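Final report, Chapter 2: Outcomes

The project's central promise was a pipeline that accepts a single protein chain and returns its three-dimensional structure in a standardized token representation, suitable for archiving and comparison. That pipeline is now operational. To close this chapter, we reproduce one record exactly as it appears in the project archive, with the input sequence first and the structure output second.
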Amino acid sequence: MSTTTATHSDAGDGQLQRTIDWRGAFWVASGVPALVLFSIGGIAGTTGNIAFLIWTASIILGLIQSFTYAEIAGLFPSKSGGASVYGATAWLRYSKFIAPLSVWCNWLAWTPVLSLGCSIAAAYILNALAPIPGFTETSPEVLQYMAANVGTSAADAVAALTAAATPAIRTWTLYHGTLGPVSFSLNSVFFIGVILMLITFAIQHRGILGTANVQKYIGLIVIVPMLIVGIVPIITGQINWDNYSPLVPLAAAYSPEPGAWNVAGWTLAFGGMFIAAWSAYAFETAICYTSEFKNPGRDTVRAIFYSGLLCLALYTLVPFTFQGVLGLNGMLATPIVDGSGVAEAMARMVGGAGFVTSIMVMLMILALMLSIMTAMAGSSRTLYQGSVDGWLPRYLSHVNSHGAPTRAMWTDLIFNVFLLAVAAADATSFFFVLSVSNCGYIIFNFLNLNSGWIHRIDNGHIHRPWKAPTILIAVGALLSYVNAMFMGAGAKVWNPWALWAGFIAAALIIPVFCYRHYIQDGGKFPVHMLDDLGISQEDLKNRKAGILPYLTLIAGVVVVLLANWFFVI
């Protein structure tokens, strides 16, 4: 089969363009390592001394799973949108509704990177422009305040002076309220975040080649300092090896007392594995651009493997050195947990202060912008290909003259403006968005890892430019249940409603798909959807895997519910 087949699109809407090789995809995916900074403090706060092991284990699982993704991506040289699109076709023979669930849940997982990343970047910008003064109990201002207000405690004096000296922009909000279990706020972080989103949109508007060129330079500026932060403390002897023991989970989240490997401890550990997956598995976005590769058969597997190796280095080194230098109490500090103090900590780890700290803040903002651009590039192409293949509304299949799926990008942006209002409110709301998003990611992960063996059974005759060892396809299928357990046990660590909200968010695909399939398309899929497999829609009635896919789904639901029932804090 030719590897230069054009991506289908509505007449007059243009097509994605074959302008990059695996290096371009590598640089577009180079924003993934920065995702470790989203939750490095949160995972340390919930798991304690085992945090570095959580990150290491998670990235190793991601690498094993990537072998399945690399194989199925090679089946579809004319599709973009990532592993969810390639895996969805495996489930199509067995259910019209399970197949689009894979695409939808992958998009639900990726798109919040825009809002979450912008909220953190906006907080850094706000800290630089309007910093909150840092008074201590021994500050001259505090001592003067206590002398002038006899009977006032040092803690009350610090609180009063901090409140009085805090710039008004830090507390200003146009409107705020609550929405179910979360808050939302149209505050200064929200408006700065919206500006950052628009900047990202403008860069992506030029198409994938322009995006890759921009991200290559930003990626180098960001990745090199992250490697320095991961290596320098080890070389200079800053690592305190006592910070890795006792090797047990916390007794309770965000409390420094060590716990034990009991049910509560395992629950916290699984909560860490659950949220780490959102970052550590994400380098699979490197195969979102198959129909934009000059040589899909060669570029696809190289893109995902080299991206995975980069993530392996950074996801092991950075959490390890953070914990070794800061220790548990340092990792539990509020500025680390909420992300606002990570840049300052990185500056101290390389022996710098003042100007070096300012440089690190700028690098942190660039790192977050890099991850935002990666997310918009990947998630918009998931929407685009989902539309082209008949899963999502037709309007999303439009691309501009540069080959950028602009309507999908606008949909991403508008949806994330809403999420940004939630993420900007407080840390609880931030992690609620993150955990609900990750429920979608684990659902996608489950369906896709099992699509590997389903494709082997139903489409074994299709040429595979790269074929994974069968044992790794089997291990990937097994890991789908391990990840399901992480979700069932661990989502509650971040919010008691996260798992159920994740199920509701995933179910929203049903009315969306019904509108496209039954109203817009009259109950038929686009003819070209199955071109890469060389089969017709009549061939979909031939289900060689029998009842195995259905048993797989039932077993997955059982694992989630049992884990949720058994593992409690």
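Archive annotation: The radius of gyration is 24 Å.
This record, like all others produced under the grant, will remain available to the consortium after the project formally closes.
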